[in-house]
């Protein structure tokens, strides 16, 4: 996922709504959408709903890092109801944000068989565990969200390509290209023609 593709206002709005509504529906303290950057092998926080929003905005982490990284690599949903007991949990993120993660529900965003990101929710507000019903709900949301995100990213890439093409055409119209200099610069100069009368 290229950084230029992240500039779409509607894409940003779409991700914000997905993240916010997901947290409210599952009654979670926080939620986030992370998109995969294949070139950098990173997951970028596209939007964070919760107290760590300001700290994690536009931050990124390696695809080898944390529960989110594991889900992105394996394309498999994961419920971790006690992060202290799971070695995949990345404590450093809590240390940076000050947020105390107790439980995580994380599912992949899959479009055409490719993982384009992950959707995760943290900590049930009532302190209860995430369950299979929560997983089913989040998986359904992720399925629809992945399609919407992919469409918007494709549109943004097309808009970028069209703008770049228009820019190149504009540059070409301002220049004059000649394959040969047809103006003799000195006696006997210029382009010689073949005498075909012989």
When the domains are counted, the total is: 1
Bin the helical content.
Answer: 25-40%
Strand content: 15-25%
End-to-end separation: 65 Å
Task: Specify the overall morphology.
Answer: globular
CATH architecture: 2-Layer Sandwich
What's the number of helices?
A: 5
Helix and strand run? HEEHEHEHEEH
pLDDT < 50 stretches: 1-7
The secondary-structure class comes to alpha+beta
Strand order of the largest sheet: 3-2-1-6-5-4
How many beta-strand elements? Answer: 6
The CATH class turns out to be Alpha Beta
Indicate the radius of gyration in whole angstroms: 26 Å
Descriptive report:
- Strand 5 and strand 6 (114-124) form a beta hairpin.
- Mean pLDDT is 81; it is low at 1-7.
- The protein has a 6-stranded antiparallel β-sheet with strand order 3-2-1-6-5-4, with helices on both faces.
- It has helices at 9-25, 53-56, 66-74, 91-97, 132-173, and strands spanning 28-37, 42-49, 60-62, 78-80, 104-111, 114-124.
- The radius of gyration is 26 Å and the shape is globular.
- It has one domain: GAF domain (Beta-Lactamase), CATH 3.30.450.
- The chain has 198 residues and is α+β, with helices and mostly antiparallel strands.
């Amino acid at each position: 996922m290229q950084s230029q593709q992240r500039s779409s206002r509607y894409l940003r709005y779409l991700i914000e709504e997905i993240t916010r509504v997901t947290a409210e529906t599952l009654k979670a303290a926080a939620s986030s959408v992370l998109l995969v950057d294949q070139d950098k092998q990173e997951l970028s926080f596209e939007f964070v709903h919760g107290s760590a929003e300001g700290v994690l905005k536009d931050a990124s982490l390696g695809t080898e890092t944390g529960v989110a990284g594991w889900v992105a690599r394996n394309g498999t949903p994961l419920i971790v109801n006690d992060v202290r007991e799971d070695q995949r949990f990345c404590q450093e993120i809590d240390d940076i944000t000050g947020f105390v993660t107790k439980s995580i529900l994380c599912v992949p965003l899959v479009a055409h068989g490719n993982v384009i990101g992950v959707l995760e929710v943290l900590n049930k507000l009532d302190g209860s565990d995430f369950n299979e019903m929560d997983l089913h709900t989040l998986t359904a949301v992720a399925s629809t969200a992945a399609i919407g995100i992919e469409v918007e990213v494709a549109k943004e890439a097309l808009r970028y390509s069209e703008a770049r093409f228009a820019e190149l055409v504009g540059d070409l119209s301002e220049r004059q290209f000649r394959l040969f200099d047809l103006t003799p610069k000195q006696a006997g100069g210029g382009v010689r023609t073949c005498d075909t009368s012989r």
